[in-house]
Design a protein that fits this description.
By secondary structure, the protein is α/β, with parallel strands linked by helices. It is built from twelve helices and ten strands. The protein has a single domain (2-201), classed as 2-enoyl-CoA Hydratase, Chain A, domain 1, CATH 3.90.226. The strands form two sheets. It has a six-stranded mixed beta sheet, with helices on both faces. A four-stranded mixed beta sheet has the order 4-6-8-9. The termini are far apart.
Length: 242
Amino acid sequence: MCTLEKRGRVYLLTLTGDGEHRLNPTLLDAIRSALARIRSDSARTGGGLALVTTAEGKYFSNGFDLAWAKSSPADRPRIMTSALQHVIADLMTLPMPTIAAVTGHASAAGFALVLSHDYVVMRGDRGFLYMSELDIEIRLVDYIMAVFRSKIADPRVRRDVLLRAPKITAAEAARRGIIERVVGGAAEAVETAVRMGEELAGKNWNGEVYASIRKAAFPDLCGALELAEEGDEDTKMLASKL
């Protein structure tokens, strides 16, 4: 389902195999397990780390596993959406910079997973970003809408992404401010993201401070994810520095 390796100061989380990397509870639990390992390792160092998430094959992720959700029992859609909510919450609280290296198509919930990282690098020779909900007649849950409100600041760009359902190339995504960088192919996307991760990790920022500032930067998203406020802990940390 996924692998985790460490390259210098950068953790590389890879969705494995040539499938569509549909987001069902099995894959999402595997991602959460990997993030938990990263968080545990980070607690021992305090900072100077980064995460890159990528995928093998044609797809980064083709969204929720709708076939799994439509089978019994009836509460499977809730279980699946809750599992992704937990993954995004984990990313928003991870004590280090995060980068998505998009090596293939990222659709619907897969697109939301991409945007849940701090930075996005995307291959330019193939692949697209696509919100398919209009085309397949599925409503957006609140926390996914909050991802798009928080990470696509221009309301006109956000409108087009959500209400036109285009398949957005890397070049167009960069032009419209959805992603940071476009590179040649899949291998280059991963290499570029890892280099970016090494540069950010080299700042040796305190991981907990980084995560706290990230949460403060995106209060709408953190509220939708039901993440607890950290004001008291931040006050204690400030006091300890004075």
